[in-house]
Design goal:
With about 220 residues, the protein is of the alpha/beta class. It has one domain: 3-Layer(aba) Sandwich (Rossmann fold), CATH 3.40.50.620. It contains eight helices and eight strands. Strands 4-2-1-6-7-8 form a six-stranded parallel β-sheet, with helices on both faces. It has a two-stranded parallel ribbon with strand order 3-5. Helix 1 links the parallel strand 1 and strand 2. The longest helix has 14 residues. The protein is globular and about 55 Å long. The N terminus and C terminus are likely disordered. It binds adenosine-5'-triphosphate (ATP) and nicotinate mononucleotide. Adenosine-5'-triphosphate (ATP) binds next to helix 1, strand 6, helix 5 and helix 7.
Length: about 220
Amino acid sequence: MSSTGLALGEGQRSWRLGVMGGTFDPIHHGHLVAASEVAARFGLDEVVFVPTGQPWQKATKKVSPAEDRYLMTVIATASNPRFSVSRVDIDRPGDTYTVDTLRDLRAERGTDTELYFITGADALSQILTWRGADELFELAHFVGVSRPGVDLQQKDISHLPADKVTLLEIPAMAISSTDCRRRTSEDLPIWYLVPDGIVQYISKRGLYEVPENKESHGGE
Ligand SMILES: Nc1ncnc2c1ncn2[C@@H]1O[C@H](COP(=O)(O)OP(=O)(O)OP(=O)(O)O)[C@@H](O)[C@H]1O
Ligand SMILES: O=C(O)c1ccc[n+]([C@@H]2O[C@H](COP(=O)([O-])O)[C@@H](O)[C@H]2O)c1
């Protein structure tokens, strides 16, 4: 890794680190394809997956324990040498904000690391509602990826700094965590929507067995 704390020498370039933040409840192939595609298109050296601690925008929904979401993310990414997982968000108390995620990764990896935050294009168009929106663009470049149901041509990002934001069409994967949870609760298969190890983990831990609308808010 280039994050040695020493200045970069001549001919060396900074380490390009993709940051894929998500609730990952559970992680699925849509997330993995998005990370892989952005890595290829931006020449990223590594993509770090960062499971959220407490996603404040999902405060009224039941979210599985952070350790389950973290372990599923580790299992799903283990076979790719360029993928890694960070605990920065789940180890930080309180609600999760991306500005804290990026500050922590910057402090951990050093200033010779360029950060590329990967998110759905739908989320990206809302980014000015995120905490510390101005600082976000100083810390990272933002890549908004397509997902089924989101028309990139319709996304207006003219209010965002043009040199800090890119929209990227990726292979369409009509998969959502919501649908994986619903299918599990209805005893329908999720094979091939998520990596095999995630099917096994969900079954072993009994996650999502009760329909979401029958549960009270739980989480941590
Ligand atoms: N199928 C997909 N294709 C591309 N991007 C996706 C896909 N699913 C999720 N993402 C993006 O990955 C990031 C993390 O997503 P998240 O963990 O919330 O998954 P999700 O499937 O959207 O979950 P939920 O259905 O519970 O809202 C978000 O920025 C989201 O837009
Ligand atoms: O910082 C914020 O205010 C903020 C608001 C909404 C979402 N995010 C981040 O966007 C990523 C995807 O979030 P989600 O809820 O779609 O899983 C995840 O890393 C969140 O922490 C961040």
